[in-house]
Amino acid sequence: MGVTFEKVTFLALGKKLALLSVVLAFLFGFFSLHARADNILDRSIEISSAVPGEGNIDYEIDFRPVTASPIGSVVFEFCDNSPLPNVSCSLTNGLDITSATLTTQTGNTGFVVGAAASPATQVLISRAVAPINLVDSSYTFANMLNPSSPNSTTYVRIYLYASTDGTGTPVDEGSVAFSTAENFSVGAYVPPFLTFCVGETVALDCSSTAGDLLEFGELSESTPRSATSQFSAATNDPEGYNIFSTGSTMTSGNNIINPLTEQTRSISGESQFGLNLRRNAQPNVGANPQGSNSGRPANDYNNPNRYKFENGAVIARSPNSTAYTRYTVSYIVNISEDQAPGSYSTSLIYTAIASF
Amino acid sequence: MQSLYTRIYKDLRKTTLLAQAAVLSIATVLPFVMMGMASAAPQVTERELQASTAIPADTGVTLTWIFDTTDLGGATNVDHIEIEFCDSPLGTCNTEDGGADNGATDGIPIINAAPSATLSGPWTTTAVTATTRQAGDGGGTNNQILIDKTNADDTNNADELQIAIGGFTNDDEANQSYYTRMRLYSDTGTTLVWEGVFAQSTAQTLNVSARVQERLDFCVGATVTDSESANLRDSGDTADISSCADVDGTTVDLGVVDANPSETPVGTADEGNNTNGLALINTNAVVGTTVQYAAIQEGGITNGPGRLKVDGAECDASATSTTDQCFTSLGTAGALSGESFGMTIAGVNCDVNSGAGYTCDYTAGDTSIGPVADFTGGTYTAGTTGSYGHTQYRWDEGGSYVTIAQTSSAGTGTHVIDNEALILVFGAQAALTTPTGLYDVDADFVATPTF
C-alpha cells in the first residue's frame, strides 16, 4: 500500500516534471535560436540634398563598431519597408545606388566598392580582412539618385562581416534612416513704385507735406521778390524719373509778368518770372537738392542765380532708380515800372513720371 | 514482487532523470518526493535553500538555509551543524574538490576556505564560535561546512531558522543541480537530532531581447498656423495636421514687399497666401537630431544664385546692392531693415505631440528639438523658457547646409522627438530702389537623426 502510494506519487509528479522540462527545453531552445550581432553605435546618414529625384547626391554614413573582430566587408542595404535586419527588403521607389562610388572613408579604412549580392538595394565595400578599430567611422558615397517621392523615409541597414564578400553572420549591424522632403519655395512681389510729393515744405521721405500757396507779397520794381516750394521723389524704376512743371507765368487778367525763356539773372526793374532748383545769392533764396545724388535738376534749372520758366519743361530727373531726393524750387519775380497794377497769380503743376 | 520492484525502480530512475532536466522548478518539490524514504533522524521541515544568485561562475554568492525543526517532545539542543555539499541527496558524494574546482559537472559551488556562518531567526542563541570547511562525511574534499555554535541550546519546534553563509562561487556550468545535506547535532558531532536535504542549481541566464526599429518621419510644407500652441493646420486651413501625411503646400508667399517689413503669414489682401513654413519631425533617434537647410542655387547665375531674386537675373557682385533684382540676404542674424530677406523659427508647435512620452511645451522650453541661436525668432532656452516671435532673421545664400534646429535633453529629458513642428517664418523688406519683379528662392531641408 505504501509502496503503491509512492509509485503513484512518483509517476504523477514525473509526468508533470516531464511536461515542465519540455516547456523549459522549448524556451531555452527558442531563446538560443536568435543569437544576434551587436548594434553599432552613433549611427547616422547625412545626405547632401533631400530633393526627391535629385541625382549626384552624396550619402555620408557614420557609425562606430562595437565588436573587436576582424572585418573584411560592410554591406549597406537600402530599403523603404523596414530597418530590421533579415527582413525582406523592398527597394525605395526611384532610388538608384548602382553608380555609387566611395569618395571618402575615415576611421576604419581601406575599403573599395565591391560586388554586392543585390546591387539594386545593396552597396558593398570590402578590403583585406583586418582588425576593426572601435572608433567613429564614416563612408561617403557619391552618384546616388534620391528616391522620387517626397516625404518618404528610406532605411539603410548596415552589416559588418568578417568575410570580404558580405557573406556569413554579421559581426555588427545597425540601421539608419533618411527622408526626402519637398523643395520649398518662398516668393515675393516687389511692385513698381514712384513716390512723389509737393508742398511748400515736404519731408525728405514724403512722410509729411505742408502748404500749397506761395505769397510773394507786394511786387516791387526795385527789389526782386522770391519764394520757395519743395518736392521730393524716389523710384525703383531702373530708368529713373522725370519731373515736369506745367503752368503759365504769373498773370493778372490780360496783364502778365514775362516768363524768363532763357536762363537769366534776376534784374530789378524788368518784368521777370522764373525759377531754378539751386541755392542762390541774387536774390538770397533756395537750397540745393538733398538726399540721393542720383536725382538732380535739369540743366536749365541747375545754375545758381540763373532763372528760367518754360511751361511743360523737365526741371528735374534721375537716370536710374533712386532713393529720395528733395528739391527746393526758388521763384523770383521782378516787375518794371510800367507793370500794370493788379493781383498776379499762377498755378503750377508738378508731375513725376517713371517709365518702368 | 520482483517485477513490481523492477517497475518501481524503472519509474524511480525515469522520474529522477526528468527531475534533473527540470531542476529549476523542483528545488522545493524534491524534498517532498524524498519524504517517503527512511531517515536516521527527524527531518527539518519547510526547508528551502536560497541563493543570492544562480548565475554560473558568479562570485560572492550567499546561500541561506531556512527550515523548521519538528517537536521532539521537549527541549532539544543543537551544538554542531554540518552542511555537506553533494551531487546527490543520498549516498556517496561524488564531487570534485569543493575548495577549488567549479568546472566539474557536480554543480557544487566553490566553498570559501574560511566560511562564516550567520544564524538568524528563533535560535536560542545565534553566536557561532567557528565555521570550518572540511571533507564531507559522505565523501569528497572541502565539500562540507561545520558550524560550531557557541552555546548548545534548545532548538526544538522552531519556525524559519536561518543559516546564511557567503563567499561561494557558483559552478561555471548552467543548469547544474546540487544538494546540501544538513545535520544538526546536540553535541560535537555524535548525537544527530535533525537532518534534511536541500537542493539548489545554477541556472541558465535568459536573455530577453527585442528590437525597436529606427523611425524617422520628416516633412516640410506650409501651414496657416502662427503660434506654438494653436491647432496645427494645413496650408489651406481645411484640416488639422496629425502627421506628415496631412502636410501639404510647398510655397510660402510674402506677397507685395515694399519699403516696410513683410513677414509671413501674409494675407491675401497683400497678395500673400496666408502661410508660414512648417517642418514636422517624429523620430526615436536617441542620440540626437539636427535639421538643416540649404538655399538652392539657381543654375547659370554667377552672383547670388541662392538669394531671393528674379529668376534669370544676375545679381550685383556686391552682396548689398539695392538696385539689382536680388534681395540682400541677412547673412548675420538680425532684424529686417533696408533691403533684406531671411528666415527664422518663430517657435515649436506642440499641437500634434501625443504627450505619451513627455509633455511638449515651447513656452517652458520643454521641447526635444529647438532652434539654434541664429534662427530663434523669439526666445528659447531649453529646459527654461521659450517665446514665439520673429525679431531676427537669417539667410545663408551660399548653398551649404546650415543647422537651424537641434535636439537637447535639457528640455524634455530626451532626444526622442514626438511630432514637434518647427514654424518657419520668412521676412523681407525692399529698399526704395529694389527693382520691381517677382522674386523667389528655393530651399532644401534635411533632418539627420543619429541612433
Topology:
The complex is a heterodimer of chains A (356) and B (451).
Chain A: H1 2-33, E1 38-39, E2 41-47, E3 57-64, E4 71-79, E5 101-106, E6 112-114, E7 122-130, E8 137-144, E9 153-161, E10 172-179, E11 184-190, E12 194-199, E13 201-202, E14 209-210, E15 225-235, E16 241-246, E17 251-252, E18 255-256, E19 272-276, E20 290-291, E21 296-297, E22 313-318, E23 322-334, E24 349-354
Parallel strand pairs in A: 1-10
Antiparallel strand pairs in A: 2-3, 3-8, 4-7, 4-9, 5-8, 6-7, 9-10, 12-15, 13-14, 15-23, 16-22, 16-24, 17-18, 19-23, 20-23, 21-22
Chain B: H1 2-21, H2 30-34, E1 45-51, E2 61-68, E3 77-86, E4 117-120, E5 128-134, E6 144-154, E7 161-168, E8 177-185, E9 192-201, E10 216-223, E11 251-256, E12 262-263, E13 276-283, E14 288-295, E15 309-310, E16 340-349, E17 369-371, E18 379-381, E19 385-387, E20 402-407, H3 409-412, E21 417-429, E22 437-450
Antiparallel strand pairs in B: 1-2, 2-7, 3-6, 3-8, 4-7, 5-6, 8-9, 10-13, 12-21, 13-21, 14-20, 14-22, 15-22, 16-21, 17-20, 18-19
Could you explain how this protein is built, in words?
- The complex is a heterodimer of chains A (356) and B (451).
- Chain A is mostly beta strands and 356 residues long.
- Chain A folds into two domains: 38-179, Immunoglobulin-like (Sandwich); 194-354, Immunoglobulin-like, CATH 2.60.40.
- Chain A is built from one helix and 24 strands.
- In chain A, the strands form six sheets. In chain A, strands 1-10-9-4-7-6 form a six-stranded mixed β-sheet, with no helix packed on it. In chain A, strands 12, 15, 19, 20 and 23 form a five-stranded antiparallel β-sheet that branches. A four-stranded antiparallel β-sheet of chain A has the order 2-3-8-5, with no helix packed on it.
- The longest helix of chain A has 32 residues, at 2-33.
- Chain A starts with a helix and ends with a strand.
- Chain B is mainly beta.
- Chain B folds into two domains: 22-201, Sandwich (Immunoglobulin-like), CATH 2.60.40; 216-450, no CATH class.
- A five-stranded antiparallel β-sheet of chain B has the order 5-6-3-8-9, with no helix packed on it.
- In chain B, strand 18 (379-381) and strand 19 (385-387) form a beta hairpin.
- The model of chain B is unreliable at 1-38 (pLDDT under 50).
- At the A-B interface, helix 1, strand 2, strand 10, strand 11 and strand 23 of A face helix 1, strand 10, strand 11 and strand 22 of B.
- Strand 11 (184-190) of chain A pairs parallel with strand 11 of chain B.
